[in-house]
Design brief:
The chain is an alpha/beta fold. It is built from 13 helices and 24 strands.
């Protein structure tokens, strides 16, 4: 087997991988980048980008059905699901082509496709990677392996053609009845989308709807989906099996749900195991690589970035990992992570939840308002949801915020920026907002803070 000596090896061409590889190559280093599937990682191939493109079609269908509320008359709304999927993949194919062209144009960078096996040197002098029929060796290895759907060992699962998000996004025909196992972000987003396309949808939320959120927020999300015709059941999945309709799911209380398709959306797992059993790098109990504040793993000369390091499960955190790594003045410590669930309307979150604030022992101020009181939301008949902000009464710093509603995914970043910059809440209270916008109510929120009961 031929051996190729490199200055650096990047395993994984997701969000930070190409940037790191390109930066090293631009400095004259000989770099190999290995991708086990397709460049772009989960986000580009079966995550953020295709799902948001599909969400856009679902949102248009939903808005068209509501046209009468706005005085617009339309005929019966029909969804051409295959055409919607064609739109998704035409967009994604263009983005893939652009990324591939960029990678091909980087001098000193070799792109290799195939499964990689890593054997590290405890002394950090040289690390070995086997890929296809080649062997690579380098003193520096950057791991950008990502994560994949976690599929629990449910009885009978292997007897049905279950789907993760990968298979769901490959469909060409609309499922008559989609059963979603899991009430987290992925399950809720897909459940709403497919209901808007015209599928019957049942979400089995054994752990609750959006269980990481406060109970009142979870209840609002459940009500929002139920009003659109999504059925939500709270029992836990006990078994699966085939039937004449396609699949049946038995719950622990004896309830049986039948449908045509089943999506398993029960979380994500680390891809660290894809490197083989002898990589020698420490992981936590969930299989994510343990790192320090500069992404160093337990092995000298090996760094872990993105989802596989357990310090963020989002495209934006993975991308920022690459930025931080290339700036010696920065570290991952103290990062304020804003995130969103892309239902429609979306949920934006940053910092502490209400539950966490109560448990923090801090003296907390709280302000919240229903979207039905926000002028722009009322003008656009988009009054689902609420805004909530939490502030430390002693320091006047923002502790956290929740925005469920129109533009919540963008609005939350205003507060995330304030938290990252250490802005005291009176500065936001005293700003002059534009009317009529969704953001104009945030200064009003800061002016209505009261002690948390």
């Amino acid at each position: 087997m031929p051996t190729t000596e490199c200055d650096a090896i990047v395993i994984g061409a997701g969000q930070p991988g190409p940037g790191i590889a390109g930066s090293l190559a631009d400095k004259g280093k000989r770099v190999a980048m290995i991708e086990m599937e397709r460049a772009g990682g989960t986000c580009l191939n079966h995550g953020c980008k295709p799902t948001k493109a599909l969400r856009a079609s679902a949102a248009v269908a939903h808005q068209a059905r509501r046209a009468g509320e706005y005085g617009v008359r339309v005929g019966e709304v029909q969804v051409d699901f295959a055409a919607a999927m064609d739109r998704v993949w035409s967009i994604i194919d263009e983005l893939r082509e652009s990324l591939d062209d960029w990678i091909d144009g980087v001098d000193n960078l070799e792109m290799i496709n195939g499964a990689a096996t890593l054997i590290t040197d405890p002394d950090g002098d040289a690390h070995w990677v086997s890929v296809e029929d080649r062997e690579l060796v380098a003193p520096q290895v950057y791991l950008n392996l990502g994560a994949r759907a976690s599929v629990p060992p449910l009885p009978g699962l292997d007897s049905v053609p279950y789907m993760t998000e990968v298979e769901l996004l490959a469909l060409r025909e609309l499922p008559p009845h989609l059963i979603v196992v899991g009430g987290g972000y992925i399950g809720l987003e897909f459940g709403q989308m497919f209901r808007r396309f015209g599928s019957d949808v049942t979400i089995i939320a054994g752990g609750g709807v959006a269980p990481r959120e406060d109970e009142d927020v979870s209840a609002m999300i459940a009500d929002m989906l139920t009003e659109e015709g999504v059925r939500i059941v709270s029992g836990r999945t006990a078994r699966l099996g085939p039937n004449s309709a396609g699949v049946e799911v038995g719950l622990d209380d004896g309830t049986v749900i039948t449908g045509s398709h089943v999506l398993i959306a029960t979380g994500r797992r680390s891809n660290s195991d894809l490197l083989g059993p002898d990589h020698g790098i420490a992981t936590d109990e969930r299989g994510f690589f343990t790192i320090d504040s500069r992404f160093n793993t337990s092995v000298k000369g090996v760094w872990a970035l993105g989802d596989v390091n357990g310090h963020g499960a989002f495209t934006h955190t993975a991308y920022q990992d690459g930025q931080i790594l290339q700036d010696p003045s920065r570290s991952v410590d103290g990062r304020i992570t804003s995130y969103a669930m892309f239902t429609d309307p979306p949920l934006g979150r940053v910092g502490m939840s209400l539950r966490e604030a109560r448990d923090s022992g801090k003296k907390v101020l709280k302000a919240e308002v229903p979207m039905s009181s926000v002028s722009r939301a009322k003008l656009e008949s988009e009054t689902t949801g609420m805004m909530r902000v939490l502030v430390d009464a002693d320091t006047e710093l923002i502790l956290g915020a929740t925005i469920l509603g129109m533009h919540g995914d963008d609005l939350i970043q205003m507060l995330g920026l304030a938290m990252q910059a250490g802005v005291h809440y009176p500065a936001i209270r005293n700003m002059l907002p534009i009317h009529p916008t969704m953001a104009e109510f945030i200064p009003s929120l800061m002016g209505s803070l009261e002690p948390l009961d």
